[in-house]
Amino acid sequence: MRTVDVSSKPETLRSAKAYGRIRLKKETVKAIREGRVPKGDVLSACRLAGIMAGKKTPELLPFCHPISFEHMELEVKVGEDFIEVFSYVKGLQRTGYEMEALTSVSIALLTIYDMCKGMDDSMVIEEIKLLEKWGGKSQWSKDLKGLRVKVLSECGLRELIEGKLTVLGAQIEEEDYQLLVSTQNLELSSVWGVSYVINQKLFSLMPESLREGVKLGLFNGKPCLQLQASKEVITAFFESFGNLLGNWVYGEAV
Fold first, then answer.
1. What's the pTM?
2. DSSP secondary-structure letter at 41?
3. Which of 12, 35, 167, 207 has a 20 to 30 Å separation from 142 between CA atoms?
4. CB within 8 A of 99, min separation 6: which ones?
5. Structural domains of the chain sorted by starting position, each given as residue range(s) with its CATH number in brackets
6. Is 114 in the active site?
């Protein structure tokens, strides 16, 4: 058993929204509205419990990464014979917040159940589900499908690079190319600022291996990815940024 290795993923803005509903007697809902539940203010307690539970998620779920978040809110809507709970979590991390949002909703509903069980034995938690997950690969990535790419490199590294590009959907070409990928030192007419961010990340992963690093920019008016001639650096680049490569070059190349 093990957690998923997210060390090579870039930190991006991510969020998740979850939903849950509990069905109660109309008399119970009325007592909650009027503040007549013996254990106290049910709605305030479930909001507080939900937020606290979101913070404790990795302590409850053994394979959930311990991640911080920048924002969490819990919304409670009261119907005639039900209560709905919405949880929203947002932050900058390498992995998403769906489990934090779902845990928050679950504990909020269980808090309602616990506080009202002495006066209502018919309560049913009917539904808990993820409404929305935003950020990470599914939203940020753009593959290279249909993009024509030329690779300049010695044999062994060339095969490695072409394999990585093919997985992303690129077409390997020699003449009519839209993106140049090279391990040779080229004179780029401009270097994009994202190169600095990429090299910071790669250095954190392999400080002993990074030398020339990676450059993204323009060569002869076309997008160019210049990679250090190292299997380790090339592999780390595609593992960390392969799914974002299309975002950076596609608009310039077509």
1. 0.68
2. -
3. 207
4. 57, 61, 64
5. 12-139 (3.30.70.640), 141-253 (3.40.980.10)
6. yes
